[in-house]
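Continuing from the previous page...

OK, I double-checked the sequence for Cobalamin biosynthesis protein CobW against my notes and this is the correct one:
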Amino acid sequence: MSDLKKIPCTIVTGFLGAGKTTLVRHLLENAGGRRIAVLVNEFGDLGFDGSFIEGCGIEGCTKEDIVELPNGCICCTVADDFVPALNTLLNRPNPPEHILIETSGLALPKPLVRAFNWPDIRSRVTVDGVIAVVDGPAVASGAFADDPDALAAQRAADASVDHENPLEEVFEDQLLCADLIILNKTDQMQAGDKGKVLAEIEEHLPRAVKVIETAHGKVDPTVLLGMGAAVEADLDARPSHHETAEDHDHDDFDSVAIPVDPVATPEALVARVERAAEAAGVLRIKGFAPVDGKPMRLVVQGVGQRVAHHFDRPWKAGEARDGRMVVIGLKGFDVKAVEAALRAG
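Thanks. Re-ran it with the corrected sequence; updated structure tokens here:
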């Protein structure tokens, strides 16, 4: 089967909270009638992002078009989880015209791309392109290095220095595999910060890769789909700190799902998330909760000290209005302090 007959797959990668799910939703909302399926991988006990997309209410986007791979890293479980899920989509009577794969924020794209060379799928699908979504304000604040200034000084003193910060390694590996980089949340950045982040991204790249600046993941689908990169045949041009899935694990990170009671106002839950985010080692908090007297589900996401919220959809008939928040942090972060903050009245 020629590449022209293969079903194209686009991999959307990016660090925790960068805006991958928002970008995917925007793509689905502007698909122009194209049949698109989505594979969503979430690191943690609650597959929130799959629920966020599935409940989008987009015409033509059904539950069957969203395949969720929770409780693991897609780049580490290609044989057990990813390949069977992909085969399920390919074997449908009416297979999708394009497949979007949203990786977890801690996943590395290169081991996933390598799976497209597996014998049972390589003749049927191709990686159309890898898109790396970057949280501009987070990078500007040095969120991917414990001490950005010290790290820069160390690099200047020793060009052969290797990375010891797992956050920075994941972030850099995602950039190194990208065909296109989306600098997201630029509406929250000053011009000087944008220049700083663009320079840092360029420093990581061994080859020319286009960077698009945007806010809220709003990018023309014609720019994102149809790259024709055939990435699975171009792996040598994409270096990585972790060349195989065996080199990559998540021993540096923990995740926990915490029940959240109904809240009186959105601001009340935002205040709780802000307090919880102050706990040392917390990287991301994301989830939803019911609000007293409101028919819609409140979604809240915190990355660092920045917390955003919105109502995403009505609660379904018969659906338990149970609030839950997923917290991802560095190994050993203070879960009890986070729980206390999220449950405090």
